[in-house]
């Protein structure tokens, strides 16, 4: 969208490049809202995309747009955790999946979660992408089998 990469030659190339240009001194976020639909929280990012287009039209540097995008994603992850805590009295958060290979994003999310007194957990010895998720599923499956 911001003209950084039109064709990727390897998996997550555009995402990696977007992370690498993010201006770490930018704390602004784009607009979004979280609404309940049929008992499920839905993150509506239409406003974010409109604001990105507006920033592009105003000539805002890609580094700022990248940072604001990442900051917004971190913000709605943490806000979703807050909603879950309010609904279920849970203050432990497990962060997993390939998106958390993004150092900018994981740093923002961990900082915000800790500031709000959450206990976050994330991968240290196992890959955070599909390989780690698969390992976790195997461990749970083994535990369920042992309990039966």
Q: Which regions are unreliable across 5 or more consecutive residues at pLDDT < 50? A: none
CATH fold label: Nucleotidyltransferase, domain 5
Q: What is the number of independent domains? A: 1
Tell me roughly what share of residues is in helical segments. 40-55%
For CATH, the homologous superfamily is named as ATPase, nucleotide binding domain
Q: What is the residue-averaged pLDDT? A: 92
- Amino- and carboxy-terminal Cα gap: 50 Å
- Enumerate the strands of the largest sheet in spatial order, edge to edge or round the barrel: 1-2
What does this structure look like?
With about 150 residues, the protein is α+β, with helices and mostly antiparallel strands. It has one domain (about 15-145): ATPase, nucleotide binding domain (Nucleotidyltransferase, domain 5, 2-Layer Sandwich), CATH 3.30.420.40. About 55% of the residues lie in helices and about 10% in strands. The protein has helices at about 15-20, 45-60, 60-90, 105-115, 130-145; strands spanning about 35, 40-45, 90-95, 120. A hairpin with a 2-residue loop joins strand 1 and strand 2 (about 40-45). Helix 2 (about 45-60) runs antiparallel to helix 3.
